[in-house]
Specification:
By secondary structure, this protein is α/β, with parallel strands linked by helices. It has 2 domains: 156 residues, Aspartate Aminotransferase, domain 1; 242 residues, Type I PLP-dependent aspartate aminotransferase-like (Major domain) (Aspartate Aminotransferase, domain 2), CATH 3.40.640.10. It is 40% helix and 14% strand. Strands 2-9-8-7-6-3-4-5 form an 8-stranded mixed sheet, with helices on both faces. Strands 10-11-13 form a 3-stranded antiparallel sheet, with helices on one face. A two-stranded parallel sheet has the order 1-12. β7, α8 and β8 form a beta-alpha-beta unit. The longest helix is centred in the last third of the chain and has 30 residues. It starts with 8 loop residues before the first helix and ends with a helix. The structure holds pyridoxal-5'-phosphate (PLP). The site of pyridoxal-5'-phosphate has 13 residues, from α4.
Length: 428
């Protein structure tokens, strides 16, 4: 099929008529599917049900510190959990703090602490006239929501196939003292599935920020979430890279087991330099007497070690891979060559990022909704929910069953085609 832009008005009108018919048929199937968030499917959650059995009323609940996990004690995580998450995050065990059930919560606290108390002795951000964060786009809406909530001005930085555009990052960070942070999802990024190249990570580690309290918010949420055994991305470990570059304090690494065990009931961690961790512990000891050690123990006993976790992730991949392949196959078959959209085939993570023709994303998401398919709001992948080109749509294939996903993808491509035709006809 020829590119839509090369079709005559009559051809477009004819095509629209036949596509509308197909769309009505899909609509009649009465699908009701919420594909708006990157949630694991029930089949994936079932993989971790063994975790419910590793602790029973008969279990011995001492952790290796000799502390009873049922009681108070051990502020920053039991050794077993620290070792597991340190290996997962590729950092030394002593450079990690274990938190509660959500890494997003840790990110929020990190921004909140910087606002009220500053970073390693610098002026609290709330006392400054302006605080800015760089936001690689498209990116993760909940990151942007945190900085928006605190009144931090967000500055878009375009993503490239190698990560954020580092020429722009270097320039802005070195010239503007009000830039205090950058949000990064460095591996299998949300939503594009891009992994930062070696050069990008190296350039991050060598940044020369104008603000001494500038921090890289390195949210490695998808560090071990590969889809394929034979095609895997590799990411340089940034904490060591920053140390080597003489910038040991410049990065906070975040991660959690949310999409490894149970989202909302996993364990989260931060990895950082000794100085940063000391500051975090200072706040933490006021905030809590300690997080849920029973859950930490449960995770440590269930996975045993990083090898157990890696094996577990292969089972997730076996469930996720066919779903990604289905979406990618339908996109290629139905939209390939039409020049009305582009996408990246990721090797891991939770999303496929789709770029429609400019000015079409909102209308496509609305069209899909008419047929019962709820997608992530267009614009959500940009700060303030504003995609300047109204082009990016995040596809989250994990939650639906394969059968639902096949129908959902058909609805999606039909919506893309119909809206694109309207755009070309000048109706949008
Ligand atoms: C990039 C990224 N970071 C963090 C999270 C949430 O993590 P948690 O459940 O640990 O708060 C998600 C969930 O979608 C995510 O995509």
């Amino acid at each position: 099929m020829a590119a839509y832009k090369d079709l005559s008005r009559e051809e477009l009108l004819e095509l629209r008529e036949s596509l509308e018919k197909k769309f009505e048929e899909e609509k009649a199937k009465g699908l009701k599917l919420d594909m708006s968030r990157g949630k694991p499917s029930a089949a994936q959650l079932n993989l971790s049900m063994g975790m419910m059995d590793v602790l029973t009323s008969e279990s011995q609940l001492m952790c290796s510190e000799g502390v009873d996990c049922r009681n108070y004690g051990v502020l920053d995580g039991i050794t077993e959990a620290k070792q597991l998450l340190a290996d997962m995050m590729e950092v030394p065990k002593d450079n990690i703090i274990i938190f509660g059930n959500s890494s997003l919560n840790v990110m929020y606290d990190t921004v909140a602490r910087s606002m009220t108390h500053g970073v390693l002795g610098s002026t609290p951000w709330c006392k400054l006239d302006k605080v800015k964060f760089l936001c690689p786009v498209p990116g993760y809406d909940r990151h942007f929501a945190i900085t928006e909530y605190f009144g931090i001005e967000m500055v878009n930085v375009p993503m490239t196939p190698d990560g954020p555009d580092m020429d722009i990052v270097e320039k802005l960070v070195s010239e503007d003292e009000s830039i205090k942070g950058i949000w990064c999802v460095p591996k299998y990024s949300n939503p594009q599935g891009i992994t930062y190249s070696d050069e990008t990570v190296h350039r991050f580690a060598c940044l020369k920020p104008a603000a001494k309290d500038f921090r890289i918010y390195w949210d490695n949420a998808y560090g071990i979430h590969h889809l394929y055994e034979d095609k895997q991305d590799y990411l340089i470990e940034i904490l060591m890279e920053c140390k080597k570059a003489g910038n040991p304090d410049m990065v906070y690494k975040f991660s959690s087991t949310s999409k490894i065990s149970f989202p909302g009931s996993g364990i989260a961690a931060i990895a950082a330099s000794d100085a940063n961790l000391a500051e975090i512990r200072n706040q933490m000891k006021i905030q809590t007497i300690g997080h849920d050690k029973v859950n930490q123990l449960r995770h440590a006993r269930f996975f045993k070690d990083i090898h157990g976790m890696v094996e577990h992730m292969k089972k997730h991949a076996d469930i996720m891979r066919p779903k990604f392949d289905t979406v990618l196959e339908v996109l290629e078959r139905e939209l390939g060559g039409l020049e009305i959209g582009s996408w990246i085939a990721p090797r891991g993570g939770y999303f496929i990022s789709f770029d429609a023709m400019e000015g079409c994303a909102k209308a496509i998401v609305a069209k899909a909704k008419e047929a019962g398919l709820v997608m992530t709001n267009a614009g959500a992948t940009f700060p303030y929910g504003k995609d300047p080109k109204d082009s990016n749509i995040r596809i989250a294939p994990s939650y639906p069953t394969p059968e639902e996903l096949a129908i959902a993808t058909d609805i999606f491509v039909l919506s893309v085609k119909l809206v694109s035709i309207d755009k070309l006809l000048g109706n949008l």
